[in-house]
Amino acid sequence: MLKSWKKIPQVKRHLIVGVAICLIMLVYSFFAADSVLDFMSRTVIMMLFASALNIILGFGGLRPLGMATYFGMGSYSYVILVVRLGWAKPLAIVGAMVLSMVISLGVNVLCLRANDDLAFAFMSMGINTLLFTMVYKIPYVGSDTGLTGNVRLDFAGSASGNFYLSFVVSVICIVLIYLFYHSPFATVLKGSRDNLERLTFVGMNTQNVRLFACMVSSFFVTVAGILYAMRNMGAFPVMFSTNTSTEGLVMCLIGGMQSFFGPILGAVIVTFISTQVSILTNYYQFILGALIVFCVLFLQNGLLRDDTTRDLGEIPTKKESANK
Hints:
This protein is mainly alpha-helical. Helices cover 72% and strands 1% of the residues. It has helices spanning 2-7, 10-29, 34-59, 68-84, 89-111, 117-137, 159-181, 184-194, 196-201, 206-232, 242-255, 262-280, 284-298, 318-323, and strands spanning 147-148, 234-235. Helix 3 packs parallel to helix 7 (159-181). The longest helix is centred in the C-terminal third of the chain and has 27 residues, at 206-232.
């Protein structure tokens, strides 16, 4: 059975698994209570967040310690435009996306100036911390209590309506991320991850390659932030917290950064532990910590790993060269 499954082309396997997951979630949602639908809404949003983050973590080789910048920017921009400025909700979504992308361009250009992984990681974390402190202190955006209001779309005001909206948008975005993974640009991006010097020698502007990848990742993270604001009926400082960025990294680590479904699986596990296991015990963080340690020691590639072909940047062995 396993051998027959492996003989199926990888794209078809991914399609089968993806359709199965969607059908299971949809069928289960028909009978779920509002509290369960609320949990499922958060889960699908975190799936999108982790998948978007993995664009520059798993494929780009960068360590995005400040991705909560765009998650929080999407949430706060949308809520401020609706609650404070009275914009129509569809127009506010567009405005929040545009504002977040403009800020993303400035932040990523600054963080990638040195074209160095370590500099990028700490610069992005520093900017994230700065923005978190600002929203935590400024009364106009709600300070430490956040900013709440009726920010859900009219047709998605109920728990079920909000879940289906989050589900449909997240699935569409994750499919787009999958197509991005199989684009020629993704091959170049993996090359910058595996062998930055070689890519530079062949004439590629690696800084622009990474900048574009960061912009794509920021776009989908912003979408996740807007959906999260709708789910929570407001924006709160925790959305800007570096803990949110770390949580996304943990999802990718546990699920598998080299697998398309890895961040999705990691998002389900981490969200379940954070929201459901925490109800049963105060030591839920111990369970999560133990799982992280286990993955680092024994499953460094995560729980899932695709049987992909050799990445650009790996040097072929003598045996492979002889076979050619």
